[in-house]
Specification:
The complex is a heterodimer of chains A (about 220) and B (about 260). Chain A is about 70% helix and about 0% strand. Chain A is mostly helical and about 220 residues long. With about 260 residues, chain B is an alpha+beta fold. In chain B, strand 1, helix 5 (about 165-185) and strand 2 form a beta-alpha-beta unit. The chains are: A mainly alpha (about 220), B alpha+beta (about 260).
């Protein structure tokens, strides 16, 4: 527990950032019946993410290696968000495409952990693939919205905000994912600064997700 | 190749993150702008298409009225006269032989029936009552016919200071005709209240029934062409129509249109 007393404010921010996940969880919990299948997937992503992050923090405090949780959370994160797009892009891409990508991604993640980046390292390879795939899904979803033109007020359409959150979070953090292992070669102070910036994007990401769950219309068929 | 120094690496990271963040924001902003632009164009096109359809429908209604009036006139003035003349000749040539007396009578009866049918068709095409005695009289006649047929009881209240322009009278009469026809076909009502009231610069037509009602939000195809024609006629009068109904709660229609005092 002594380790907690030595933390700088930036380190505290990095450590506590995951608590922001409680906002979308609380909103999603109270509005669960009104959520579409895609948004329920967002809600369950938040719940699972919160649990994994909480366990990771406990391990860190107890000085138990916790990088394996990062490997696991990458797969969980991708599966939930790919699932969001599986429903959001229904009728626009082949039904088997996204489940196939999920399967392939999970296989790659396992191979990467076994042969390339063990639990002693950040799984940067897989994080990059995840970010690129989710950005691609988000762009396809934007294309779908432009192509169909059925949503008249984007600001009231929850999936638009989920999409914005995905694009902003994964694009902004792409450099962090690419250099997360390389970063270990430099000073701890630089690492803290970079992960602090990552935490800010993490908070922004979850606030936007919370907002998207908040604006869900009472009638789930409405497009707003 | 040597790895970059810490300041160089830090600079690369911060600038990279910032650029990616700005790029993602730019993508979102571009999408929002582009989507709004396309949506605006689509809405404008739909509005234009709708306007065009309205114009077409209104032109069709006008053409239909003109055609009805022409056919009614032709029937009355030409075919009616021919039949009446034929009847007159038949009356003049009294048959001498008993054998053809019955045939002669049959022919006279057929001619009488023909004249009656012709009047009825002409009446439907362009009600003589409407032309001669005005809107109130024509609507009263319609209501009376419905009560006579035992369909339902109709209560008609009216207050019109003077006759309206012929075109307006025809449109209002057709609106009432359409509403009453719909009531016969779908309402299953026992009581109907109809009111036609003139205010200073406008006329209000109110229809109420105690029938089964319907869901006005249903897709237009299901509601039928009748309501589309109705709303087109109301638009031709530069008026407004408010339709309220729910299942089991009857139908309430209020139509208000201006009258231009010259």
């Amino acid at each position: 527990m002594e380790v907690l007393l030595k933390l700088t404010p930036q380190q505290w921010a990095i450590l506590d950032a995951f608590l922001v996940t409680l906002i979308p969880i609380a909103i999603g919990f109270f509005r669960y019946n009104q959520l579409s299948i895609a948004l329920r997937s967002v809600f369950w992503f938040c719940v699972t993410g919160f649990c994994l992050d909480a366990i990771g923090r406990v391990f860190w405090v107890l000085s138990i290696p916790n990088l394996f949780l990062g490997h696991l959370s990458t797969i969980v994160e991708f599966v939930f968000f790919a699932n969001v797009y599986r429903f959001a892009l229904r009728g626009f891409v082949k039904p088997a495409l996204i489940p196939a990508i999920i399967g392939l991604f999970t296989l790659l993640a396992i191979i990467n952990t076994i042969f390339l980046q063990s639990f002693k390292f950040n799984n940067s390879n897989i994080k990059i693939i995840e970010a690129v795939l989710l950005i691609a899904f988000a762009l396809v979803f934007f294309y779908k919205l432009v192509h169909e033109l059925v949503v008249s007020r984007l600001e009231k359409y929850p999936m638009f905000w989920v999409n914005c959150a995905v694009i902003i979070y994964f694009s902004s953090n792409l450099f962090v994912f690419i250099y997360s292992n390389y970063l270990l070669l430099y000073s701890k102070q630089l690492g803290i600064q970079i992960w602090f910036i990552h935490s800010l994007f993490f908070i922004l990401f979850h606030i936007i997700l919370a907002f998207s769950l908040w604006i869900v219309p009472r009638n789930p068929n409405s497009h707003g | 190749m040597d790895r970059p120094t810490e300041p160089e690496f830090a600079w690369l990271m911060f600038v990279g993150i910032l650029l990616m963040f700005l790029l993602s924001m730019a993508v979102v902003a571009f999408f929002v702008f582009y989507q709004r632009k396309l949506h605006g164009q689509q809405t404008a096109m739909e509005r234009l298409k709708l306007e065009e359809q309205k114009k077409l429908l209104q032109a069709e209604i006008t053409a239909q009225e003109n055609e009805r009036a022409r056919i009614a006139r032709d029937l009355h003035d030409e075919v009616g006269v021919l039949l009446s003349t034929a009847k007159l000749y038949m009356t003049m040539c009294r048959p001498l032989e008993e054998k053809i007396k019955q045939l002669h009578l049959n022919a006279e009866n057929l001619l009488d029936e023909g004249v009656l049918k012709l009047r009825s068709i002409a009446q439907n095409l362009l009600p003589e009552n409407l032309r001669l005695f005005g809107l109130v009289s024509a609507i009263e006649r319609n209501c009376w016919q419905m009560e006579e047929a035992g369909v339902f009881s109709v209560q008609f209240n009216h207050h019109l200071e003077k006759r309206l322009p012929e075109e307006v009278e025809i449109h209002v009469y057709r609106i009432v005709q359409e509403i009453l026809n719909n009531a016969i076909k779908h309402a299953q009502a026992t009581q109907i209240k109809l009111s036609l009231q003139q205010q200073s610069y406008s006329i209000t037509l109110i229809y109420e029934d105690n029938g089964v009602g319907f869901l006005p939000d249903k897709p237009r195809k299901e509601v039928g062409l009748g309501l589309t024609t109705l709303s087109s006629r109301v638009q031709m009068l530069q008026g407004e129509m408010l339709l309220q109904s729910a299942l089991g709660e009857g139908v309430h229609i209020t139509i208000n249109f201006p009258i231009f005092v010259t």
